[in-house]
């Protein structure tokens, strides 16, 4: 579909960029960062690898683009808003789990990115910062639930770190074994976890 | 050190195999599966890539060897045995966490292997089976702790799945942010998790 070189107008350019993003996403969702090559993206797009080198002069540029795409799609995904306090804390945790095919793709790509991220000092620092920011947002919700009397008092950062660990590990289990961890079971496990948090401790 | 071709005796062969294993392990611990190449292993070993092709005729053979090595070292690692029932359940969970540099290397390699495993249907099935077997072993310990009255009654498989999720997620957090999750904090978070399990539910 894109065998005739570079786009000619700004509209063409934007449309192509969207198509390229979608092709990168599809390769990642199906085969992970291990298999992310110009050749694989070109095949997905029905384009030549030559065309793609206009977008990604190096393998590293492709990887960085993919990581940015993952970040953007994660930031802009729809979020649950079912209430305040404990309900908002639960919403934030449900938003992380692979409860839909779209969320499963996104999680599969996140897990796949961990190898690359752990292998690169800058990226590893960046990921540590992202997860710390995630814990900070959870901590605010825990503190709000404590103020409402829905969670017992105690260090909210500690509760947030535990909950983040729980959902990250549940993501990994559900990705490897979707038959054993269908959405309903993930939600049950999370609700059981939350029920234990609400008991005085 | 290994520039002169194939080993000449069985003893030489065994010694070399150990050295090759160690070189593969070091590459994985430092840079993950993404960076596992014959060239990287050869550099670590101080050998030629030519020598290594005797061991690993293809990239896939190298990856499979690395995955076997990870499995073997995990199976044969020392385990805690501090008691029965709840203590044995806690031991099994502590055995998973990156509480020592050796355990951190091993976990870093496990996390790194997830991308490759999720990208390959056979490997993915194999991993799902491994994690299910891990949950079964945890389930036995939960059931034993329930029989001793140390954990409240309830579906032990459900408790085991939650605990496995919790420690897997804690592994990921600790690998990305060892400063925020030193061994002592990991143990505190786990003990807090276990304390909530022991309360009637």
UniProtKB/TrEMBL annotation, chains A, B:
Gene3D superfamilies: Tetracycline Repressor, domain 2 (1.10.357.10). Residues 37-56 bind DNA. One of its GO terms (molecular function) is transcription cis-regulatory region binding. Keywords: DNA-binding, Repressor, Transcription, Transcription regulation. InterPro entries: BetI_C, DNA-bd_HTH_TetR-type_CS, Homeodomain-like_sf, HTH-type_TetR-like_transc_reg, HTH_TetR, Tet_transcr_reg_TetR-rel_C_sf. The keyword Lyase does not apply. Coiled coil: none annotated. Residues 14-74 form the HTH tetR-type domain. This is Transcriptional regulator, TetR family. It comes from Micromonospora avicenniae.
